[in-house]
Amino acid sequence: MTSGQPLGSPSRGREPTLTIAQVAERTGLSHDTLRYYEKAGLIERVGRSTGNQRRYQAADLVWLEFLLRLRETGMSIADMQRFARLRAAGNVTVAERLAMLREHRAELADRIRALRRNAAVLDDKIDHYEGLLHDERPGSEELT
Asked: If you ran DSSP here, which 8-state letter would residue 43 be given?
């Protein structure tokens, strides 16, 4: 999402809103994905214009950005839905949401460590093959 851009046209006495097309453009999510997120309970029911078009507020965009981070870090849709339900229930669920995020962060740290180990193995194998290319003597054969 791009910061500093004006959010759509202002409604009477309310903050400016965005259409689904504008939100799709800013988030990279398709219209269908945005509708799915609403239907799946990941985002609260979005306001509507007098013409029944979805009108997103700035807070919706902030929440969508967070959902995208959760998705990109591997949180399941079911866990995202659970987190969204807890969020909708208010401050009484802060401790449970914090526990969920801590657990997810620990799992992410484990995956990052595993990816770094795997990257090191790949780097070693790349070095091995580059060495084979530079050392093309007859009789030098690949062992792995």
From this structure: S
Residues forming beta bridges with residue 54, ordered by sequence position = 48
Q: Picking from 1-5, 55-59, 71-75, which range would have the lowest pLDDT averaged per residue?
A: 1-5
Q: What is the pLDDT of residue 53?
A: 86
Cβ atoms of 38 and 28 closer than 8 Å: no
CA distance linking residue 43 with residue 35, whole number of Å: 9
Distance CA 99, CA 79 (A): 12
Give the Cβ contact number of residue 105 at 10 Å. Answer: 11
Backbone angles phi, psi at 27, to 5 degrees: -100, -20
Give Cα 136 distance to the centre of its chain.
Answer: 46
pTM of the model: 0.75
Q: What is the DSSP letter of 116?
A: H
Tokens of 43: 């985002």
Helix (H/G/I), strand (E/B), else coil: 53: coil
- Read off the pLDDT of residues 63-91 as tens digits, 9 standing for 90 and up: 999 999 999 999 999 999 999 999 999 99
